[in-house]
Amino acid sequence: MKTSSTGDEISIPFAHPAFVRTVLDYLGSRGVQPSAVLERAGLAWQDLHDGQRMVDFTVFRRFVSHAIECSGDRALGLLAGAMFQPYHTPLGIAAVTSDTLGQALQFVARHAKLIFGGMEYQLENGPKWSTFKVKPIRPLCETHIFVIQSILGAYYRLLEAVLGRPVDELAVGLPYPRPDGEDESSLRYVRTVTFDQEYLTLQLPAKLLDEPSRSADPQAFFEAAQTCQRMESEQKRGEFVQRVRQALQERMTDNPDASELAADLGVSSRTLVRRLVEAGVTYSDIKDDLRKSHAAWYLKHTELSMESIASQLGYTDPTSFGRKFKDWYRMTPSTMRRELRAGAN
Prior knowledge:
The protein is α+β, with helices and mostly antiparallel strands. It contains 14 helices and seven strands. The protein has two domains: 13-216, Alpha-Beta Complex (H-NOX domain); 228-344, Homeodomain-like (Arc Repressor Mutant, subunit A, Orthogonal Bundle), CATH 1.10.10.
């Protein structure tokens, strides 16, 4: 996985840029300058117009924090989620052009990671109830309520689009305590809410699953579904690159070659090389990128000697490390350390 410039954070693709744009649209409607929130979160407009590249979780956390602070609205996630129209993404288009609500929900459960990649989605259909379960696969930290409410708002908007009416039958279980005072913003869109649940549950009477979609369109569904499959394939290639990065980061001192790391990952060296080429990178690219970011981190945050840093990065010869460092940064390690220390003072 990709490390940050400080070398101590892991890059985890998390949120579709279309959702982040929706949050910005809502902020704009409240008189908040979106550019200010983007700048503080370390995002640029161009980052949000690549439909294939998910926003990193570390960046997303900063974005959510600044967005809530600027809006002053604790229900920002819910309101932005409700603004997240189905036509914003191929997933939504496929859902609303399905034949029935049941087909739409099955498609969403199968492909929802294209919108929020850090969650597990399950659809369980029983004789009386259809239950959509959403479970985080990693801690959501301070974004927990925001993300849960965003999914609730987007899910409700999707149901409305499919059925063409308010969905009063929806019952929701929320994985956090009932808010203090009058701040029960989750009640804005649903009549039945329970708190302190293990995970988010969205429940509908099973009889609704056979209701036809108001926008059913077999050709549009097929085309959107094809796009979703292509996006998932690209996303999986990105996830494999992240697995390689993480495994290499854990063994950086050993400086494993591609065949050794492939064995760690349970694939052949030929498969590792092929899958990286499909993703547009090489094993050497990944190793170089990790060494580059870690070298700068060690220089800034430790008192390790150049020989020790070289060893930590898998170099047996400090001279080779020095030459490579000059290729990366156009200066020697010692010069960078002095500049970093001077900047900190």
